[in-house]
Amino acid sequence: MNKLPSLKNLTYLLALHQHKNFNRAAQACFVSQSTLSSGIQNLEDQLSCQLIERDHKSFLFTAMGEEIVQRARSIINDTEELLLYAKSKGNPMEGPLRLGCIPTIGPFLLGPLAHALRAQYPDLKLKIREDTTEQLLNYLRDGDLDVLILALPVDLQGNQQWVLGRDPFKFVYHPNLMTHHNKPIDYEALPNNSIFLLEQEHCLSGHAVTACKLGNTKKVNPFTAASIHSLVQMAESLEGATFMPQMAIDQGILNNCNLASMAPAGDAAYREIGLVFRPTTTRRQTFRHVAEVVASLLPVNTLS
């Protein structure tokens, strides 16, 4: 049998592809730059192909290099899952679970979820990372996370999903903004710049605007918030309005503030919550149990 490439050298290749810099990749692998470079050169020799085109100041991955990166990533992920399987002695609900969640869901779900998982599966060691959808998908691709809780729809980038439930939107407003309640609400009757939204990197704004049928962008204030909690403060202090997910309201985000809520326009004024994972994973049984717990905590459970 031919000598197989080492996992270490495959890891070096993945680090270089991720960081786009030999020095940063070496630091991420806790080795010297020369060690990392030699490992990748050794990998090229073993595979009998050029993975990287180099000159004195820069480099780029060849077409074969890009293909090898994708295959190496799958090998590393599968090896890590093999180790987890062995450590858990085959029990799918033992060992670490690295879960990613977006900031417009995490503050209102992760606490109850952690308590529920600890009660039902005490040997499951939950590790949580909160970030934007784009960054979480990168971490999932690179094998740094096992599973994600995201708001849908979203470009899955080849991953798979289970739709867990719905999180209805509410139109939240300052009483001085509206003297009477029209149902459905007439956005055209509101002043321009009176509706506050999150920064564009948060998918909540796009989902809310689409689901709640807000078509006139003149109604949206150009100043945005970085978090849902800041959004509440802006709507209250500037006597405006916003869209708020039901799970945030259920967790008391409107307590002790002078804001009211009502149903927005639109027959499907909600966002879907999903569990996203790599198609090559061997931990579907683990993820299914987690999905059932998450779905039970959502305002509307649609998991079949």
From TrEMBL:
Sorted UniProt keywords: DNA-binding, Transcription, Transcription regulation
Domain named HTH lysR-type: residues: 5-62
Cellular component per GO, a single term: protein-DNA complex
Record-linked InterPro entries: LysR_HTH_N, LysR_subst-bd, WH-like_DNA-bd_sf, WH_DNA-bd_sf
Record bears the keyword Transcription regulation: yes
The UniProt record lists the keyword Glycoprotein: no
CDD domains recorded: PBP2_OxyR
GO molecular function, one term: DNA binding
Matching Pfam families: HTH_1 (PF00126), LysR_substrate (PF03466)
Entry similarity comment: Belongs to the LysR transcriptional regulatory family.
Protein name stated in the entry: LysR family transcriptional regulator
Gene source species: Aliidiomarina taiwanensis
